[in-house]
Amino acid sequence: MTSFAAVLLLLAVLMILRTPIAFAMGIAGSVGLAVQLGPRPALGVLERAFYDNTSSFILVAIPLFILMAEILTAGDVTRRAIVACQAWIGHMKGGLAMATIGASVLLAALVGSSTASTAAMSASAFPEMRRHGYNDRLSAAVVSVGGTLAVVVPPSIVLVVYGVLTETSIGQLFIAGVVPGILTALGLATVVKVISHRTDYAPEGDPFRFGHAVRTSRHVFPMVLLIVAVIGAIYGGIASPSEAAALGVFGALIICLAQRTLRAASFGTSISRAIQATVMIVAIVACSAIFSNYLAFTRVTQTLLEMVASSDLPRFAILSMIVLTLLVMGMFMDQLAILSLAMPLAFPAAMELGYDPVWFGIIVTKSVEIGLLTPPLGLNAYVAASQTGVSLRTIFQGLLPFIGVELLVLFILIVFPDLSLWLPSLM
């Protein structure tokens, strides 16, 4: 146990020194394996861990989904989705804010990245709300919380990484995220509606014009068809997530070329960004495997499972501790770092308690989603602050009622597992 404590201390020091989480886990795990097994056997374990976890076919889905999102963003399709939602419900009191949440759902189904979604909404929706006299506190909070929908709504990159780390069906995870995503969006829209009627933060927008709404929607209709085709192919068992991702990239290219909105330079930038994001995620997956192997050889995971099995605590109490730990970690770390650190221990413990791996994935994903909004890190709040110029203090104050609803939705998903498992059971 002394060597295990030293490895944990090394990991903590590396993280404090702001070493990327992938490298921190890889270095700590490698040192631990060398101490535990010796240098030569440790190299053999490292070789196997790298190969086994980076040669998986399911990893192909990651760069393809990221590339699909980058192409649609470069082709101006995401901005048009925001404009279309605003055209339909922007005239209502608080309508622009609710339209921003509606557009965030569409973006979530296309982008798969919360920070990218928040940045897009901050650049497009926030100026429009400010122009119509919306209070900056509400506007910045809405674009921050809207971005979190990309964490749970398929095709979420977080769900893909969870599926790879825990060997859980990514197709079932995607389908399981549909109802929680819709439930979350409805909860956020309800908060906006209540705030708009109790305060003067959200005035009415421009008068509704049916013709204008129809004209703006015709650019978005192909995007909706693409979403339905990608998710439907997975749900119907026609294609695997990787194959559906390839379909998504092809469809995104066709849409952008047909609408003549994609330039050669933008396309090259999209590929570059997709490669950078993919390398980061694959590095996290590989280095997390190294650390997991170290935990396996030290029998820490087995000891934890034995403690859980022999514990007198009820299942719900142990699950509550896991969720609370994830929420606290979310205050200081990003989602992928939390998954890579927590899943080697939390996932086996949850399986020992008899929980469904797909349902547990949704609970974990929802927990790390909330961490994107909570101080002191609150990554989405930082992105919104940098894009909008609104102070972090103001944004965090505006986020308080939304965080409350997010916690309520998390509690509902825990108490009623069928909300997450109903659609996957029909696949």
From TrEMBL:
The chain crosses the membrane at residues 56-74, 105-126, 138-164, 170-192, 219-238, 244-262, 274-296, 316-346, 358-379, 399-423. It comes from the Bacteria. It is found in: Cell inner membrane. The keyword Transport applies. Residues 9-418 form the TRAP C4-dicarboxylate transport system permease DctM subunit domain. It is a multi-pass membrane protein. InterPro entries: DctM, TRAP_DctM. GO terms for cellular component: plasma membrane. GO terms for molecular function: transmembrane transporter activity. Keywords: Cell inner membrane, Cell membrane, Membrane, Transmembrane, Transmembrane helix, Transport. Part of the tripartite ATP-independent periplasmic (TRAP) transport system. Belongs to the TRAP transporter large permease family. The complex comprises the extracytoplasmic solute receptor protein and the two transmembrane proteins. This is TRAP transporter large permease protein. It comes from Psychromarinibacter sediminicola. The lineage of its organism: Bacteria, Pseudomonadati, Pseudomonadota, Alphaproteobacteria, Rhodobacterales.
